[in-house]
Amino acid sequence: MTENLAFMTDFTRWLVDAAMVTRNQRAGELHRLLCEKLVDLGIPLWRSSLGIELLNPEFEGVQVRWIAHEAHIETLPRGSDGSDYEGSPAQIVDTTRKPFRRKLDGAASNMALLGDLHRDGATDYYIVPLPFLDQERTAHLSFASRKQGGFSEAEVTALGDAAMLFSPYAERFMLRRSADTLLTTYVGRRSAAKVLEGALDRGKAEMITASILIADMRGFTQYSDTRPIANVLSTLNDFFDALVAAIEAQGGEVLKFIGDALLAIFPASDGQPVPTQPAITAALDIRQRVTALNAERAKAARTQIRFGLVLDAGEIAYGNIGSRTRLDFTAIGPAINHASRLLELAKRLDRDIVVSESFAAAAEGFDFQNIGHHRLRDIAEMQPVFAIAQEA
Q1: By mean pLDDT, which of 72-76, 195-199, 298-302, 329-333 is the weakest?
Q2: What pLDDT is stored for residue 6 in this prediction?
Q3: Alpha-carbon distance 75 to 7, whole Å?
Q4: Domain ranges in the chain?
Q5: CATH 3.30.450.40 at 2-186, yes or no
Q6: What is d(CA 348, CA 346) in angstroms, rounded to the nearest whole number?
Q7: Looking at beta carbons, which pairs linking 269-277 to residues 24 or more positions away fall under 8 Å?
Q8: Is the model's pLDDT at 338 over the cut of 50?
Q9: DSSP 178-220
């Protein structure tokens, strides 16, 4: 009893310090330090695996493995068949919420993982569920040994205690990662960072200079009225995949989706000119991606996608707007309004990429096509408008 209490006290103090050292890193680094610490304490650990179910639009979960002092990380994409998970020790502990142990003494096992571990020289396997407060997410921590005879009973007890102490720190890392992932997914990376830094006051906005990109899908209303909803959602997702990939590749940030439309910005760094080249590159990439997408859709006899896109530049207010209980971290300003009016004009002129006068003036050296002066809704004076030719 006294010996176990001493272990728990020393280990707890070490874990607090280790968690502080790794607080700005992923949970995998704390797991690596945990495994190294257990080895230092004399536990014959050869392999350990930390599995955590994620709240992530791309990945079901993450598996962090430590094998003979080497760390490996594997993510499980959403939509995977889960064949490795069915009937596995991980599924058993996730379902029963109880530890599972199996001596790997050569007896046949119907679990593929245990068979693989035995062939690699493992003699004992122990896995425990981590008691996260968030019961919607499952997590487990497993240990394997190559020592003859496997873990002793005292070592199994120590591993179980270590896992319980490790659990709240693992959940803390997971919750932080989930918050960062979800905010980035729904409001964009730059906006997510601002919110996590504490930019929560309603009505407070930062004045920034940026290139603005607004785009939408042509004929979407008619398309959505005449197609099954599954087709509409699939087409929208394909369209936005093409746009977002091109924008983010150039450092742009998508602020919002509105129906079939998208608003993105390319903020200027402090004291630097408005970044027009990344926005131009993104626009041209979008044109190419939609062309490639349409080629694939033609093979499947699906409707071709047509789009309109506007590039503008100017000063915008970037911050929190909304009610006391529901905020939107977004951008507003005359330049945004101007860009939306240009998008209407692009449709009337049947142009895919239209550029404002302010953007064209800022983008020195690029050969835009002058398409004349045009009247924009709610703007008194005729506006010079430019385009990027199809051959650009």
Answers
A1: 195-199
A2: 61
A3: 33
A4: 2-186, 193-387
A5: yes
A6: 6
A7: 273/362, 274/209, 274/210, 274/211, 274/313, 274/314, 274/362, 275/210, 275/211, 275/251, 276/211, 276/311, 276/313, 276/359, 276/362, 276/363, 276/366, 277/363, 277/366
A8: yes
A9: HHHHHHHHHH-HHHHHHHHTT---TT-EEEEEEEEEEEEETTH
Reduced to 3 states (helix: H, G, I; strand: E, B; else coil), residue 42 is coil
Extract the tokens encoding 359.
């953007």
Helix (H, G, I), strand (E, B) or coil at 9: helix
pLDDT-derived band of residue 82, with 50, 70 and 90 as boundaries?
low
With beta carbons less than 8 A apart as the criterion, state whether 331 and 263 touch.
Answer: yes
The CA distances from residue 87 to 110, 139, 369, in Å, are 9, 16, 63
Amino acid at 31: H
Residue that the structure tokens 């797991």 belong to: 31
Give the tokens for residue 213. Answer: 């990109």
Cα gap 106→128, rounded to integer Å = 22
pLDDT higher than threshold 60 for residue 371: yes
Give the Cα-Cα-Cα angle 248, 175, 100 (nearest 5 degrees): 120
pLDDT tens, residue by residue, 192-230: 787 877 777 777 778 889 999 999 999 988 888 889 999
Q: Which of 77-91, 155-169, 208-222, 335-349 shows the lowest per-residue confidence on average (mean pLDDT)?
A: 77-91
CATH 3.40.630.30 fits 193-387, yes or no: no
